[in-house]
Amino acid sequence: MFKLKNYTVFFSKYKKKLINYFLFKYLSRYKNIILFNAAGYNNIGDDIIAFYLKKRFEKKSSIFNIDFNNLEKVKNNLRKLQLIPINIEDVNNFYKKNTLIICGGGTIINPLVFTNDYYLEKIKKFQEEGFKVVFLGIEATGFDNKNLAKNVFLKSLFIGVRNIQTKKLILNLYNKNGKKPLIFITYDLVEHINFKKSRNEDIKEKIAGICISPKIKINQEKIKLIIDKLINKKYIVEFFSFCNHTTYPPENDLDTAKIIKEKYFKKNTKVKIFDLVNINDTINHLDNYSLIITTRLHTTIIAHIKEIPVYNINWEDKCKNYCFNNNLFNGNIDDLLKRINQL
Questions:
Q1: Do 251 and 245 form a contact (C-beta atoms < 8 A)?
Q2: Do the domains 206-341 and 2-192 match in fold?
Q3: 226 and 336 Cβ atoms separated by less than 8 Å
Q4: What topology does CATH give the domain 206-341?
Q5: S-S: 74 plus which of 40, 66, 98, 226, CB 3.0-4.6 Å?
């Protein structure tokens, strides 16, 4: 910990103690916790954090989840997570002093995704009504409406900050405005969850798991080369998904996988697809892999916790920074091809 003129910053070596303190001492003050994230939409990262918070606070707090799009389509998933689904318009029915709003568990505030400031406007209204807001995951650079972002951030508390630029932006913002916040600089709450490794000893083959977001414009020919090299090294290759949004926004990690399978490996039994997305099955299934190749942050974090060798394809700063901090591979496809050659 160190102090500068207008703020106190806690760095990573203190983070476990501070995160535990924050979760038990600060969050448990609140009778109601409203999650402003994508839990219930088959996004494993958001679902994990929602489930984790529910387990931590089920005896002290009620956990609600705001609907993004169509509540009817996610109600069953939210109930499986033991969350109470609510419409965004119903937030003001809660008693402000007993209610905390948590944004994220994913990157809720990201100008590259939400360019119309819709979510910032909503959060600002919650703050104006007297609700306390905490960010779990944030990449906050390049907003068109900088005054709106400033007003929201100056009234917020941050746990997860996912890139250096955002950290600088937040600290400079508080410094310029004479505020003295307590800021917890950690990377992602998933880092603080214990995932047990339970490899099925009956599995004798070497299996390489691949999870690629459809957002990334990846060179399919080079993915084919990687798969060919893995097969030559006696691996079975299996595509899996950490995200399968069936509502908004539509996104399925297996979209690219199915194209590659159909195009290059239609009759090859060494290339498979694991087509299932839910917390328990997907996370337990990771234990079957001898190595994992992914573009996803939470896949990378969980693989690392489970001590499964993981290679992250460079796409977003949040992945690059996490890999750098933990001495994990992060590079482009050509870098990955070289690394596969070394196996």
A1: yes
A2: yes
A3: yes
A4: Rossmann fold (3.40.50)
A5: 40
